[in-house]
Design a protein that fits this description.
By secondary structure, the protein is α/β, with parallel strands linked by helices. The protein has four domains: 221 residues, Rossmann fold (3-Layer(aba) Sandwich); 69 residues, no CATH class; 56 residues; 82 residues, Orthogonal Bundle (Arc Repressor Mutant, subunit A). It is built from 24 helices and twelve strands. Strands 3-2-1-9-10 form a five-stranded parallel β-sheet. A three-stranded antiparallel β-sheet has the order 5-6-7, covered by helices on one side. Strand 1, helix 3 and strand 2 form a beta-alpha-beta unit. Helix 2 packs across helix 3 and helix 17 crosses helix 19. The radius of gyration is 29 Å and the shape is elongated. The model has no long low-confidence stretch (mean pLDDT 92).
């Protein structure tokens, strides 16, 4: 363990860098609460999106890294702000009229449009937990509704009335003048309508811990801040939660980063110690727009898992968290293949290299062996030319290429074959555009076909690649990339593709000759 700890203490991998920063908080004495608390927050205003998963995945990676460098126990809390008032109706849910009637009510008071749970908030919480459980995360779930109503938040809410002026000083400094006139850190929940009210306070009583306000009709109310009668505005809520729970680490998107001094300041006003935080860049859809729960744009977790493994998604989340990344269907094949490349490299690496390998962090230091004998990108091309309807349709080719492989001994390969067929039919096939070769390309392809017709080198991918390479050179392609591009566009209907020698080895020499005959005859062009 000491060698691993030594390697971790100098690792440049970002989870270890964050873990070392958290450990520094307790270099003088261990936490009084007996553990280090990691938190992720979730606003259940719509179906959970992939960015929410990313927060838990990345926080888990840091938590695992922390466990290597410290013996202090840890907890991970996933906190759902489900008392939040529903401000708008998401675009991707049914019964929109019913939801419109419930605007501004806490999400856990809004009926479930899917008819499966007690409320819309409970439905979205269940979706989040189902997604997180799919990945085997260890976490504790806290509902803000339960937190406010059960009294767990009462002490901090009372303290908020006693230190209200200090909280408002921090908040008002961040607001425009017109907003300052009506802003309140407390949001009362109307005793009759159940709606979350955005109204100014007439009085905050630090002795009786009550608030007095007028509702929208001008009627005056006085409510205790305890017992679920009020919630805090989201920025004060952030800081108050940190103080109430003793949070040591929370990450959030770059769009929150300007609020960090506000969150920290309120936490400290309420007697807490600001946590260590990490901001990450946002996920974008294929058009470069921020992924949004309410819009439902970008990839969902379920969509990714329809076409690739959970581990490939975790790999995507690991990469450069402080760089904005486009998250759309085209990134899936690359993530799958790079993940398996890292798995294959892992056993031959030094300990120092292993702790910097993404798969160490994805698998908590115990990555499996990759049994993926054919790259995902190659499987897509095989699906393209073989007309396979399922994984079984690809296994005849795979077994000829790798005779020792089977669906039983290579379950990741079998799963990937099924994913590849599905991905090909849904995303590749509709975009394929075949063309006829020009004169130079036709002459070269006829020469390649003639060489394949007398080929006696078996299914040696490297030898086949060298031969394809030589034909391109002999026929004057400059750069040589244009030769391979021509093969892909004429035979596969795409401008990019696999190492062509590997493709021939997988698909078969006779099958490739037949494909070339169809391409040269123009039968592939629709």
């Amino acid at each position: 363990m000491s060698a691993l700890r030594d390697a971790a203490m100098t690792s440049k991998a970002w989870p270890f860098e964050e873990a070392r920063a958290i450990l520094k908080r307790y270099e003088k004495k261990p936490p009084e609460k007996g553990y280090v608390l990691f938190e992720t927050g979730y606003g259940p205003s719509g179906l959970p999106h992939i960015g929410t998963f990313g927060e838990v995945a990345r926080t888990t990676m840091i938590r695992r890294a922390f466990a290597v460098i410290s013996d202090i126990p840890t907890r991970l809390i996933c906190f759902s702000d489900d008392v939040d008032g529903m401000r708008k109706v998401p675009e991707n849910v049914p019964k929109r009229e019913m939801l419109l009637e419930n605007l501004q009510r806490p999400l856990t008071s809004v009926p479930d449009p899917f008819g499966e749970y007690d409320s819309f908030g409970a439905y979205n919480n269940a979706m989040l937990r189902r997604f997180l459980d799919t990945f085997g995360f260890e976490y504790e779930f806290i509902s803000a509704t339960e937190f406010y109503k059960s009294g767990q938040f009462d002490d901090i809410l009372r303290l908020c009335t006693e230190r209200y002026d200090a909280i408002m000083k921090i908040m008002l400094a961040s607001l425009r003048e017109e907003r300052q006139q009506t802003y309140s850190a407390f949001l009362p929940i109307h005793p009759e309508t159940g709606r979350v009210l955005y109204v100014p306070m007439k009085n905050v009583d630090p002795v009786n811990h009550t608030i007095t306000f007028d509702d929208e009709s001008g009627r005056e109310w006085t409510l205790p801040v305890t017992g679920g009668n009020v919630k805090l505005q989201w920025k004060p809520d952030f800081g108050a939660r940190w103080a109430a729970l003793g949070v040591d680490f929370e990450m959030y998107g770059k769009d929150h980063s300007t609020n960090t001094p506000i969150y920290d300041g309120i936490c400290e006003v309420l007697g807490g110690r600001k946590p260590h935080h990490m901001t990450y860049e946002l996920f974008l859809d294929e058009d470069g727009q921020k992924i949004s729960k309410s819009k439902g744009n970008g990839l969902t977790i379920d969509e990714w898992l329809t076409y690739a493994s959970t581990e490939s998604l975790s790999y995507f989340m690991y990469l450069k968290p402080k760089t904005a990344k486009r998250m759309h269907f085209d990134v899936i094949p690359k993530a799958v293949d790079e993940y398996h490349q890292q798995l294959r490299a892992y056993p031959g690496q030094t300990l120092e290299q292993q702790v910097n390998n993404p798969v160490w962090h994805i698998h908590g230091g115990n990555p499996p062996e990759s049994r993926m004998v054919v790259p995902f990108a190659m499987l897509l091309n095989l699906a393209s030319v073989s007309a396979a309807k399922d994984a079984a349709g690809l296994w005849g080719f795979i077994k000829r290429y790798a005779p020792d492989a089977s669906a039983e001994t290579n379950p990741d390969m079998d799963a990937a074959a099924g994913f590849a067929v599905r991905y090909f039919h849904d995303f590749v096939a509709p975009k394929r555009v075949f063309r006829l070769p020009n004169d130079q390309e036709r002459t070269a392809m006829e020469a390649l076909r003639a060489r394949l017709a007398v080929w006696e080198g078996g299914l040696d991918a490297e030898a086949l690649q060298s031969m394809v390479f030589a034909v391109g050179k002999d026929h004057g392609f400059e750069p040589l990339r244009d030769w391979f591009k021509a093969l892909y566009e004429v035979l596969l209907g795409a401008s990019e593709g696999p190492r062509f020698g590997g493709f021939i080895a997988l698909y078969g020499v006779a099958e490739t000759i037949a494909l070339m005959d169809r391409g040269l005859a123009g039968e592939l062009v629709h």
